[in-house]
Amino acid sequence: MSAQIPTSTSPMPITRHLRAILTLGLPLVGSNLAQMMLNVTDTVMVGWYGIEALAALVLGSSFFFSLFMLGNGIALAVMGRVSASLGADDEVQARRDTRMGIWLSILYGIAVLPVTWYSGAILQLLGQEPQIASLAQDYLRILGFALAPALAMMVLRSYLSAQERTQVLLWITLAGIGVNIGLNWLFIFGNWGFPELGVRGAAIASLTVACLSLVAQAIYAARAPGLTHIELFARFWRPDWEAFWLVLKMGVPVGLTSVAEGSMFQASALMMGWIGTVELAAHGIALQITSIAFMVHVGLSNAATVRAGRAHGARNPRLLRDGALAVIGLSLAYGLATVALFVTLGGPLTALFLDRANPASAQIIASGVSFLMVGAVFQLFDLMQVMALGLLRGVQDTRVPMWMAVLSYWLVGIPASYALAFPLGFGGVGLWFGLVLGLACAGALMMRRFWRGPWLRQTPSRTAI
């Protein structure tokens, strides 16, 4: 719901900023963590099934994630655009952008199906072992069909977030975790007479959860009190080319920004595969752990997008600036806590993903501990870039941050990871330090971009968002 705010000459108390951010952001943090737990349950349960299956899941998930993040730029663009439209009291534009965002997500999901279907050959060309690449392809041939519903779900998630209806997202995602665990138990291990499908069973579970979650969010968006008058799906089949191109124009740079970062982590998985299967499995586990912690920052970043979008739409630069300081402070405080956690509990955290009876588990745990020590450092830089991106999306600035991401991740992060891991001989730990350098570059450039932008100097015209 919209809230009355002070004018730019009458600042909002910091406590009100924090309360507004937490009210909006905590359910988003919870839903992001719950979404991440869907991936974690896959990793844990496939890890119990076998090391080769786990390595295939790591490769397949990284491959799928790159495709997903490109398409998810549409959803993130919708969040910024709808928030600004609501800040300007324009519900019609909010509806138009959301509907065309769903169109674009479905079209993209269909277009990239051949990439997931023939992923095995692509992975082998990238230097992966044929057996692991084949297993990853089995996984992706099923999971590829989840891309369109998953991206459409993310567009609705952005719409509901901009409407500040975030609690329902948390409950739907939590329900999805239960369904995912149950289906994994049936299809990965072949319980209750179901076929034992291993990594393919995890893909079937994920596809089912994506479809069910999309249906649940669509029903709520269409029928929830206070939203029905928007008629989100009325004449949904009719194109709105103006909104279509506006969302696409903003969404493509957002997606490419995400791909630039995601491809750095994808490249790290590929390079870790060159080092060995044990190191790749440890890398996947360590990334899962850091990603779980990172979901809090993502939730706060989404809240920053909504609040910044509403302040920008209302032309209130003081609210924008003070809100940005508040959300960055919250993210930094949490980031320091995760540093302490990774440094002190790296071993037990890694062991949660493994069967201790497996002979390779001790080696994987040792490598995972080393990776998490470095991960403690890159959490701080990672939070700076994701918070800056959230704020920049709120003010609908996406093109320049895209180029900053390409520079930071492709020209700094990936080359540094390769150089430290192989020519300089630091192996997996060196590879992770390369990730730190890429994230540090991105964080510095994007924060500078936001704080020097014209949106902090615009003339106030409204007093409410």
TrEMBL record:
Pfam families according to UniProt: MatE (PF01554)
- Subcellular location per the Swiss-Prot or TrEMBL entry: Cell inner membrane
Identify one Gene Ontology CC term for this UniProt entry.
Answer: plasma membrane
Taxonomic lineage: Bacteria, Pseudomonadati, Pseudomonadota, Alphaproteobacteria, Rhodobacterales
As for membrane topology, the entry says: Multi-pass membrane protein
Q: Which residues cross the membrane?
A: 21-41, 53-79, 100-119, 139-156, 168-189, 201-222, 243-260, 280-303, 324-354, 360-381, 402-423, 429-447
Q: GO MF annotations for this entry? A: antiporter activity; xenobiotic transmembrane transporter activity
Q: Which GO terms describe its biological process?
A: monoatomic ion transport
Q: What is its main location?
A: membrane
Output the InterPro entries linked to this UniProt entry: MATE_fam, MATE_MdtK, MdtK-like
Q: Would you tell me the protein name for this molecule?
A: Multidrug-efflux transporter
Keywords for this protein = Antiport, Cell membrane, Ion transport, Membrane, Transmembrane, Transmembrane helix, Transport
